[in-house]
Amino acid sequence: MIFDKDGTTTIVFQEKTTLSGFLENLNKAYPKLKHDNIVVNLFSFNTLEIGDLLEFLDMSNTHKGAGRSFVLVTDKLNYDEIPEEISVVPTLQEAKDLIEMEEIERDLGI
Predict the structure, then answer these.
(1) Is 52 helix (H, G, I), strand (E, B) or coil?
(2) Distance CA 32, CA 29 (A)
(3) Alpha-carbon distance 22 to 18, whole Å?
(4) What confidence category does residue 86 fall into, taking pLDDT thresholds of 50, 70 and 90?
(5) Which residues pair with 89 in a beta bridge?
(6) Residue 25, H or E segment
(7) All domains of the chain, ordered by start, with CATH?
(8) Are strands 9-13 and 87-89 parallel, antiparallel or unpaired?
(9) Could you read off the pLDDT of 35-82 as tens digits, one per residue?
(10) Residue 40 Cα distances to 35, 52, 107, 109, 110, angstroms
């Protein structure tokens, strides 16, 4: 698992693994990441389905409940089919932009 920390945001990705292996490794690493905004880069997976993204929902809800951002990055899905309760964007730059907007909203109490 590879971590790229930039200020209060950590980008997480891993090459050559299964989704279940990735989730297992992410859950093990979570205690170290829980104080950062988290971007999960899923570009290393050739195919993804909506159900695959829902595997991240519990962690996303926990993280957002603690006042942090949790964003998945993939361009392999139809965004109209993704549930609103999970944040998914097609590029890393959009993930960073979303986190910046969410931080501003939190600062303003929105």
Answers:
(1) helix
(2) 6
(3) 6
(4) very high
(5) 73
(6) helix 19-33
(7) 2-108 (3.30.750.24)
(8) unpaired
(9) 999 999 999 898 899 999 999 999 999 999 999 999 999 999 888 888
(10) 15, 13, 23, 25, 24
In whole angstroms, what is the distance from residue 85 CA to residue 60 CA? 9
Task: Answer yes or no: pTM beyond 0.85.
Answer: yes
Number of residues in the chain: 110
Contacts of 87 (CB under 8 A, 6+ apart): 60, 69, 70, 71, 72, 98
Question: Hey, which residues does 78 pair with through a beta bridge?
Answer: none
Q: Which residues pair with 38 in a beta bridge?
A: 10, 70
CA distance 81 to 53: 11
